Amino acid sequence: MATHGRKAPLHNEEMLINMGPQHPSTHGVLRLVLRLRGEMIESCRCVIGYLHRCHEYISERNGWIRSLPLTDRLDYLSPITCEWAMALAAERLAQVEVPERAEWLRVLSAELYRIASHLVFVGTFGNDLAAVTMFLHTFRERELIMDIFEKLTGQRMTCHYIRVGGVGWDLPAGLDREIRQALDVIESRLREYDDLFTNNRILRARTEGVAEISAERCRAYGASGPVARASGVDFDLRRDAPYGVYDRFDYRVILGNRGDCLDRFTCRMEEMRQSARICRQVLDGLPPGEIRTKLPARFKTPEGVAYGAVEGARGECGYFAIGDGTEAPYRLKIRSGGFSNLHLIEDILVGWKVADVVTILGSIDIVLGDIDR
Amino acid sequence: MAHVPPTRVSDNPIIAFFQYVWSAAYTTAKGLRVTGYNAMRRPRVTVCYPLEQLDISPRTRARHRLLTDEQGEPLCIACGQCQRTCPDHCVVVTRKKVTVTTPEGEEKQVNRPDTFTIDLARCMYCNLCAEACPVNCLHLTREFSYIEGDVRALTIDLDGLLRPEPLSEYELRQRETAQLAPGDGEEG
Amino acid sequence: MAERGWLENWVNGIVQPLYEVAPWIVHLVPILWILILIVGSVLILIWAERKVSADIQSRVGPLHHGPYGLFQSIWDALKLLTKEDTIPKQADRLVFCVAPYIVFLPAILAYVVIPVGNGLIAADLNVGLWYLVAVGSIAVLGIIVAGWASNNKWSLLGGMRAAAQLITYEIPMFLSVVVIIMMAGTLSLDQIVRSQSGGSWSLAPPDAPFLNWNCFTLPGMIAAVLYLVAALAEVNRQPFDLPESESELVSGFNTEYSGMRFGIFFVAEFSNTALVSGIAATLFFGGWSSPIVSEGEGFWRIFGDGVLWYFVKITILIYCMMWVKWTLPRVRIDQMLQIAWKGLIPLALINIAIAVAHVAWVGA
Ligand code: SF4
Ligand code: SF4
Prior knowledge:
The complex is a heterotrimer.
Chain A: E1 15-19, E2 31-37, E3 40-47, H1 55-62, H2 64-67, H3 79-94, H4 100-128, H5 132-153, E4 162-163, E5 166-167, H6 175-198, H7 201-207, H8 215-221, H9 225-230, H10 237-240, H11 261-285, E6 304-312, E7 315-323, E8 329-335, H12 337-342, H13 344-348, H14 354-364, H15 368-372
Antiparallel strand pairs in A: 1-2, 2-3, 4-5, 6-7, 7-8
Helix pairs in contact in A: 3-4, 4-5, 4-11, 4-14, 5-6, 6-11, 11-14
Chain B: H1 13-40, E1 64-66, H2 81-85, E2 91-101, E3 107-119, H3 128-132, E4 138-140, E5 155-156, H4 158-162, H5 169-178
Antiparallel strand pairs in B: 1-4, 2-3, 3-5
Chain C: H1 6-21, H2 25-56, H3 72-82, H4 93-111, H5 128-136, H6 138-149, H7 153-184, H8 189-196, H9 218-234, H10 246-249, H11 259-284, H12 307-325, H13 333-361
Residues 76-82, 93, 132-133, 135, 137-138 of chain B line the site of one iron/sulfur cluster.
């Protein structure tokens, strides 16, 4: 562009804009400091920590059993993930046997909540792109799963279902039929979403080729979960570092190959179908038996280190614990998938437009409770 | 199929132009069909909450309740397990000794709670206290709605804890339709 | 020329005696008529928008005020009136306060030339269509200054988007209107409606074997589609609601507005929606002309030409706009401009060529 006289050229004007912490599309209290040139993003810095609740320290003080319910508050869209990771760390440290039936129930609950979490993703992604109807439709379907959890655990979101050494409650009578029905409904509605949203020309235009992430960059940032898999990183803890009884089920790990927003979206759509498949297999083959190992009144972990990691809805959720022979871990470190995934956007946002910020951020699917802990 | 093939368009710009127009029109029509179909779908999912209430699960965890024996005495032996387990430190139990008469007619000294308060404002309804109780007398009921103007009023004491769970609107309605007298079948 | 409809006669019956008492009253009637039309339609439209979106989203929608929640919008208006009206400290006060009314203005002005019923037109200008186009562009000014005067970065982005969008979409909108001018041979909206009236679904005479609405000719049909797409952009409705784009720009140009000023923006959006569907109905779907009988006997008189059909048509059009709004995601700013420059404008130009052929061969 030509410059006029000695005046600074117009296109050099930059605007510094704070997206968040109060903004409808930052999925909680995330702050993005954007440097804009017109609507183009020059650079981006993300500021986190508005939701920091010292979870690690509280756990070191409270002990294993008493901090387990708090894990529900981390990744509140898929609480089972963090519960399972923490229980897994404790079990590995203290070598607690988990009954067979409990393992199967854990898989069932985790996969159901994976569907619920991905439904929220699909809905909020639609909401970010102003397809508000998608948002309410997916929440309608999520409600089916919430109802199941209410019947199973008594609580919809903060369910406190997985305990050290098993699960809290057994399946009530008749719930398996209800779960099957809910899965049928959700699968039929997924086809509706495809018609309404996935195949829509505008959605394609908004997401195709937007913010492609290469597999190398994903590895460099330690990204995991659907974000990495959409870029072609063939990594799924359920298959690659089996925990629980995941090795007994038949499912596919979904991979994308371009790593753009559309791939990240469709990866999750497809993962929901795979999760439904796993749920059906669990219901078909649920073994009878105990659901919980009796722990000593004061459950103590021996000295040593353990790492319990599960494949959550937003990537690898890991609890690294050092035991010192007391009721509480000496040190607890949490690795959440969202944290690593989020920081990809400082790189990938550059060069895209303001309107794409919400698409890209939405496609990464963050939960600030999980990131700030 | 996670990997959706990229939208293919012809190399010829004129043909590509009409392909774009067609795909936009076609997918919009498909979307309109879905929303139109949903507009017809009955019944509605949402209900008008305070007027209309859905059933809540029997396992729902809300306000606590202490179970009593036939004489109306709390079964609690004031052992303090619940107080020790609570992650939020919202249970406070103090102990007193009382003399009870067993069915066999002997007089016996037992521990009973003198005061027992639970701060519902701090409680997160995790069920750990109920699970820790050795005599299974602490329960979380389904009474989830207790609104107070002052947060301190949310601390319930022994009286509040002994109060049985009122029937929910849903149950009242069920009872009306089943022609049952309200009041029977109450349980913690 | 068709006789006046029953409602027009009824209105005239009231106005006539008044006119004899005070001749100036006749000037008040159109103003009153327009205000009633706008306020009434907006209140109903806000309610309808909620009910339609609730329907599509498996919700119930407003229920409690009036039958089916019909009076909800009145309560909303009351709520907005009682809200604190905040003006940002650094804002340009005067412009900030005036902006909502500028956005609202074209709706009032434009209704002046829209024939709502047979003879029910405030002023039958012989350049009605030009007037409409000219007046319609005022709204963008209001949106730009609202974004600018708020002194908020999000609002500014919204205002700038509005400028790009509204100026761009004016072109395909007008190019599609040109086709109608060519076919009708007049700029007067009343004449345009009259040129379309007379036909009916039944193949029987009086004068036309079939509906002779503009949308049943090839160029008219294409023009109608183009006009409606451009109109969606013109009134900032999804998928083109970029100036507001709630999920990106917080609330776009009206981020800083509160209370009744915000309410005016809201009212303006809906009255503009009603306006563009009114224009579409007038230009392409025969305005107040009836598709069943042009002047019926007895009971069928109700379904003859008249106000009823105008409202039926805009109701259908507005429902379609809402339906589309709650279905489609939002496009990005560059894509939106592409749609206009690479899609609608070429199509509109092709369409003009088709219209030339149509006029030459079929006759105006
Ligand atoms: S439910 Fe949990 S938080 Fe509430 S009183 Fe019992 S142990 Fe404490
Ligand atoms: S654990 Fe049970 S018996 Fe012990 S104090 Fe608590 S309620 Fe009473």
